[in-house]
Design brief:
- By secondary structure, the protein is mainly α.
- It is built from twelve helices and nine strands.
- Helix 11 crosses helix 12.
Length: about 375
């Protein structure tokens, strides 16, 4: 992807953000589009932070105070949500509060953004189990059927690293590192693929079994789960320079690359490498951001290889998956997959071959990382 293509893609995304403001300033986007158009929904879903994250990226790109004002309206909604614990009985505080409220604090010193993000970090700490050393993904705490974590949570740890640095309280960092250690110990198979979900014993804290909710089956490699692991390891390595994190990152990446089709955009589960199964463009965007994050932390030669690969991935998205006509979609990136039902998983099945709000955000973040030196919200 050339610099000119990056500039064109950035301009297209910013224009789409502006078009969407009338619909999505006092409401947010559904997790996935319906017929390639996002419905407006209240701020209750785990994905609600990605749209304000896109507004903040557009504000950074333009300096437009209208965009800042819209993003800060969302900050107030997020403060209300965490103060009143509205649909917060899960681990996704990082996905919710890093791109919305940590961004607001970093960019414009929004005190309500800082307060909301610290409260969200406190809520995340409440979900940490000493027995097993992990953050419980979903449901009432300690419920035997929910004594589990998922690979996605590696991205939520960024909120805890930020909260520790911001507050001076080491507990946030300690719990983040403990969860990362548990994930590395249990969630990565010998072939360097990943389990989506991992169950722990509520009595002893010992590992029990890996499973899936959203992959094709328990033993397959859900593409987005592998992508979360790659990006998550990059963020963990930034915060704690453990050689193990770098080794795991490289091995996870190698497995992912070995299971890609020619255009570098995976099928929704990495067990598929050709055929008619749906793609997941969001996974490609997430991995590109992980590569660009890690490229800033390694030697010059490897950094160059990582940046080249990220450019190739984002270039494929721009040329083959990006929305180029607002009459076709109000998203940024087509052909994402939220949750595909199979006989072997337990998901509801929705958002298949649609835009997904995190895919849009990570595509925009990846373009932003290519366009300039960027301070992450994570």
């Amino acid at each position: 992807m050339t610099d000119d293509e990056v500039a064109s893609a950035m301009a297209a995304v910013v224009a789409q953000v502006r078009r969407n403001l009338p619909t999505f300033t006092y409401a947010t986007q559904n997790h996935s589009s319906v017929g390639n158009f996002y419905p407006a929904v209240p701020n209750t879903q785990w994905t609600a932070g990605f749209w304000p994250g896109s507004i903040w990226l557009a504000y950074e790109a333009t300096g437009d105070k209208v965009l800042r004002h819209a993003a800060q309206i969302h900050v107030q909604s997020f403060l209300n949500r965490i103060e009143n614990r509205i649909e917060t009985d899960h681990h996704d505080m990082g996905f919710l509060y890093s791109p919305s409220c940590v961004a607001a604090w970093k960019l414009v010193s929004d005190e309500d953004g800082r307060r909301a993000a610290l409260l969200a970090a406190d809520q995340l700490l409440e979900r940490f189990h000493e027995k097993g050393q992990f953050i419980q993904a979903w449901g009432p705490m300690g419920e035997p059927g929910n004594y589990r974590y998922i690979i996605d949570c590696l991205l939520n740890l960024a909120l805890l690293f930020w909260a520790s640095e911001e507050s001076g309280d080491a507990r946030y960092r300690e719990k983040a590192l403990a969860h990362a250690h548990t994930t590395l110990a249990n969630s990565i198979r010998p072939d360097h693929s990943t389990y989506h979900t991992f169950y722990m014993d509520p009595v002893t804290g010992a590992p029990v079994r890996g499973a899936t909710t959203q992959g094709y089956r328990d033993e397959s490699a859900w593409a987005r789960g592998q992508a979360w692991a790659i990006a998550g390891m990059a963020l963990c390595y930034r915060n704690e320079r453990q050689a193990a994190y770098m080794d795991v990152f490289e091995n996870l990446l190698a497995y992912y690359l070995e299971h890609l089709p020619d255009d570098l955009v995976p099928y929704w589960d990495l067990m598929f490498t050709d055929g008619d199964e749906p793609r997941d463009s969001s996974s490609a965007a997430i991995v590109a951001c992980g590569l660009l994050e890690m490229a800033g932390l390694v030697g010059e030669k490897r950094a160059g290889e990582m940046r080249t690969l990220a450019r190739q991935m984002l270039g494929s998205l721009w040329r083959n998956y990006a929305v180029t006509d607002a009459a076709v979609s109000n998203g940024f990136l087509l052909h994402g997959t939220y949750s595909k039902k199979t006989p072997f998983n337990s998901c509801r099945g929705e958002g298949v071959d649609e835009c997904v709000t995190w895919g849009d955000y990570y595509y925009f973040e990846g373009l932003t990382r290519l366009s300039r030196q960027w301070t992450p919200y994570w």
